Amino acid sequence: MGALVSRASRPARYTLVFHAEPQFVDTVKQAVFAAGAGRYPNYSECCWTATGTGQFRPVGAANPHTGAVGVLEKIPLEELRVELLCDSEETARKAVEALKRAHPYEEPSYAVYKLEDF
């Protein structure tokens, strides 16, 4: 049996969630995986993906990848929501930087959640 690790000694873990159209998801996933996201002790490139429909209205000086300023846009195809584990704050920050570089949207939709260990 492996050694027990105190919860207090483990670094904080985070979940990174992002949204993208299906044709862009693999490129973004590969970028965040390369930054260290999606790893468990004996696994790599782990994530969960679900489909949904996104909407947005570009305003002001926006330069949208899809749609036009002032027009409510509903993504015509399903959009994917991808969730990945980040094993530290540093990994989460690197993964977000990679996501922003790889994602085609002017303002990528993403969130980072700090996880509690119960």
Automatic annotation (TrEMBL):
Q: Which InterPro entries match?
A: DUF34/NIF3_sf, N-reg_PII/ATP_PRibTrfase_C
Source organism, top-level taxon:
Eukaryota
Name of the molecule in the record: ATP phosphoribosyltransferase
Organism of origin is Neurospora intermedia
